[in-house]
From TrEMBL:
It holds the Pfam family Acetyltransf_10. It comes from Phormidium yuhuli AB48. This is GNAT family N-acetyltransferase. It comes from the Bacteria. Residues 24-168 form the N-acetyltransferase domain. Gene3D superfamilies: 3.40.630.30. InterPro entries: Acyl_CoA_acyltransferase, GNAT_dom.
Length: 175
């Protein structure tokens, strides 16, 4: 499902009111987009907590799926949003490290990215997506159909909850 190709692969196009044409891409850890994703994840998810992504063990990320949004019209486009998908079983994955450039948050990029990643995962017959969401992000995930499956717990020093979404097949989506 996730191969380490040398180049990013475009999954789909979309349109954003302020940014114009955007692309959802998947990219390998050997790509410059992966380095951009580490910087974005550090800025959005680690630095506000006094942590650094650069001190974490990232070796397993070579076996994980990396997805992002870039503007279509820019050569060497900057990464605007990213998410990581961790394979767990043939039918289950974990979504982690969702981040959007701070100035672009609450403009639909995260929602667009997750919906496109879900479509991608359906092609591989993934049936369930799990994640540990910060309590501050619960409403975002619930609007996308994720349901709480746990009480609150602490992770990286802040409250989280486990969420889950059962993916419907493409044929079920239209019926």
């Amino acid at each position: 499902m996730f191969t380490d190709n040398v180049y990013p692969q475009q999954l789909t196009y979309g349109s954003h009111p302020q940014l114009g044409k955007i692309e959802v891409v998947t990219y390998p850890v050997s790509s410059p987009l992966y380095q951009q994703s580490l910087t974005l994840r550090d800025q959005v998810l680690r630095q506000p907590l006094g942590l650094s992504i650069w001190t974490e063990n990232l070796e397993d990320e070579v076996h994980q799926g990396h997805f992002g949004i870039i503007p279509s019209s820019v050569q060497l486009a900057p990464l605007l949003a990213c998410v990581v998908i961790v394979p767990k079983t043939q039918e289950r994955v974990k979504l982690r490290q969702m981040a959007v450039v701070p100035e672009l948050q609450k403009q639909g990029l995260g929602c667009f990215l997750i919906r496109e990643v879900e479509d991608y995962l359906r092609q591989y017959h993934i049936k369930t997506i799990n994640l540990a969401a910060r309590v501050s992000a619960l409403e975002f995930y619930q609007k996308l159909g994720y349901q709480s499956i746990s009480g609150e717990f602490l992770e990286v020093g802040i409250p989280h909850q486990y969420l889950e979404k059962k993916l419907r097949s493409r044929s079920e989506l239209c019926s």
